[in-house]
């Protein structure tokens, strides 16, 4: 059985963005850090770090932020960007401000375009991130697309062929599953995450995506009660649900 890791309190809280080592020592000395109901006066103390820490520890009277590994599902709204390089409001602006300075840093698990909404995972767990995006895992991503023109009828066969080429690429797309939901509405399930893939697939068959929403990653669906712009912390079992499709 693996032992619960331990870390110095000043280092843990510094990594979580609460402040410098000096500030953490002052906070501890002032009795503002409480573990299991008892003030920890020495910020140099080593403490066990597990997922239950926010239930056991308070900092300035509030539950401590969740320690790594942190995995969050966000209902990404339209108009928000995933990349630090793009201009505009970022997904990280929808999370608590202190999380922007956490170490290890949070990253999105793949990306959604600025004008795509839906399920986005954000984590500081590099191993988890790579498992989700690894092509070898074949994690299916399900999108709902609203189209500019009516479906022609042959898209399902083209997308599912395994030989469809996108412009400017030299490797065919893996077979994807198209489910028509109406004249101009479809569900598309893909296993890859190429740049603007869904929009480019519809463009390649002479259509245009007006609205795009990701409803599912593997076995993990965006919950109906998570509004656009809201996020939820996932426990390990829920996060691993991605792989149980
Ligand atoms: N395909 C796209 O075109 N955009 C996304 O954001 C995701 C998949």
SSE layout and pairings?
Blueprint: E1 6-8, H1 9-15, H2 21-29, E2 33-35, E3 38-39, E4 46-48, H3 53-56, E5 57-59, E6 62-63, E7 71-76, E8 107-108, E9 116-123, H4 126-133, E10 141-147, H5 155-159, E11 177-182, E12 185-190, H6 197-204, E13 209-217, E14 220-221, E15 231-233, H7 236-240
Helix pairs in contact: 1-2
The structure holds uracil.
The site of uracil (URA) has 8 residues, from helix 6.
Summarize the structure.
The protein has 245 residues and is α+β, with helices and mostly antiparallel strands. Strands 7, 8, 9, 10, 11, 12, 13, 14 and 15 form a 9-stranded mixed β-sheet that branches. It has a 4-stranded antiparallel β-sheet with strand order 3-2-5-6.
Care to describe what's here?
The protein has 245 residues and is of the alpha+beta class. The chain has three domains: 6-63, Structural Genomics Hypothetical 15.5 Kd Protein In mrcA-pckA Intergenic Region, Chain A (Roll); 71-134 and 225-234, Alpha-Beta Plaits (2-Layer Sandwich), CATH 3.30.70.580; 140-217, 2-Layer Sandwich (Alpha-Beta Plaits), CATH 3.30.70.1560. Helices cover 19% and strands 27% of the residues. It contains seven helices and 15 strands. It has helices at residues 9-15, 21-29, 53-56, 126-133, 155-159, 197-204, 236-240; strands at residues 6-8, 33-35, 38-39, 46-48, 57-59, 62-63, 71-76, 107-108, 116-123, 141-147, 177-182, 185-190, 209-217, 220-221, 231-233. The strands form three sheets. Strands 7, 8, 9, 10, 11, 12, 13, 14 and 15 form a nine-stranded mixed beta sheet that branches. Strands 3-2-5-6 form a four-stranded antiparallel beta sheet. Helix 1 (9-15) crosses helix 2 (21-29). The longest helix has 9 residues, at 21-29. It is elongated and about 70 Å long. It binds uracil. Uracil (URA) is lined by residues 112-113, 116, 196-199, 212.
């Amino acid at each position: 059985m693996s032992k619960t890791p331990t870390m110095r309190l000043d280092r843990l809280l510094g990594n979580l963005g609460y402040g410098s080592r000096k500030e953490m020592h002052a906070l501890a000395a002032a009795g503002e850090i409480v573990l299991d109901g008892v003030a920890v006066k020495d910020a140099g103390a080593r403490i066990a770090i597990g997922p239950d820490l926010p239930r056991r520890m308070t900092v300035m009277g509030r539950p401590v932020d969740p320690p790594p590994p942190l995995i969050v599902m966000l209902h990404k709204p339209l108009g928000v960007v995933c990349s630090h390089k793009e201009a505009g409001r970022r997904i990280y602006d929808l999370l608590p401000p202190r999380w922007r300075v956490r170490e290890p840093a949070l990253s999105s698990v793949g990306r959604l375009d600025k004008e795509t909404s839906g399920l986005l995972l954000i984590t500081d767990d590099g191993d988890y991130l790579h498992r989700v995006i690894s092509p070898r895992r074949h994690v299916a991503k399900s999108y709902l697309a609203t189209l500019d023109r009516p479906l022609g009828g042959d898209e399902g066969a083209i997308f599912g062929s395994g030989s469809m080429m996108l412009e400017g690429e030299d490797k065919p797309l893996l077979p994807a599953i198209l489910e028509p939901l109406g004249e101009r509405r479809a569900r598309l399930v893909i296993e890859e995450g190429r740049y603007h893939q869904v929009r480019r697939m519809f463009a390649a068959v002479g259509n245009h995506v007006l609205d795009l929403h990701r409803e599912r990653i593997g076995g993990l669906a965006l919950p109906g009660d998570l509004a656009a712009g809201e996020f939820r912390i996932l426990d390990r079992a829920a996060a691993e649900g991605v792989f149980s499709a």
